[in-house]
Amino acid sequence: MEVRVCKNCRRLFKYIYGPELCQDCIKMLPKDNNEKNDQKYIKTLKPLVKEEEEKFIKVKDFVMAHPRASVVQIAEANEITPTKLLEWIRDERLEFSEDSKYAWFECASCGTKIKSGRLCNRCKYK
Description:
Layout: E1 2-5, E2 12-15, H1 23-26, H2 35-44, H3 47-65, H4 71-78, H5 82-90, E3 105-106, E4 113-114, H6 121-124
Antiparallel strand pairs: 1-2, 3-4
């Protein structure tokens, strides 16, 4: 756990995983795929955060529809950089599927193969 600055309201908060938003701003994110909820949170988030969250939702939907797509295919189809996609995977917002042969990260502590984040579960909870 580390301290970060919320991308929306600029307050400090304890970051564990997911979007770099404080607990108050996370409450504004949609809980389901209801379009009314999406519009409600979109109006309350700042423009750059709103744009990034919209792209994330689009990418997440694409990945669910195309689970075997490569990082490059996902990035091209959704007009984002592969770096941004890998950032979301490192932040544990997305993860590589079990079918991914080459798309794995290594735990920063012990070197075990992991699907997302920076540490494996064993090292994360030491």
